[in-house]
Amino acid sequence: MFLLDDILFLPMNGVLWICNEIHDAAEQELHNESDAITAQLQKLYTLLEAGDIGESEFDVLEAELLDRLDAIQERGALLEA
């Protein structure tokens, strides 16, 4: 009986495995993108401290990066749900 169950559920197990792999890949991509944006923010702060960019330019670029980071966090919350 268990062998028959294994044979019948084999296709479903394969589909579930594929879905889990896709989910894991999406989470990893979001994490990598988040890390890249954080690195860009750090570089932006360094440029501001060095005087290479002005306050107004910094504010615009920082707002864009923070908006992107918020969007990533929202997508991550959707993946977890």
TrEMBL record:
Superkingdom of origin: Bacteria
Protein name (record): Gas vesicle protein G
Organism field: Desulfomonile tiedjei (strain ATCC 49306 / DSM 6799 / DCB-1)
Classification lineage: Bacteria, Pseudomonadati, Thermodesulfobacteriota, Desulfomonilia, Desulfomonilales
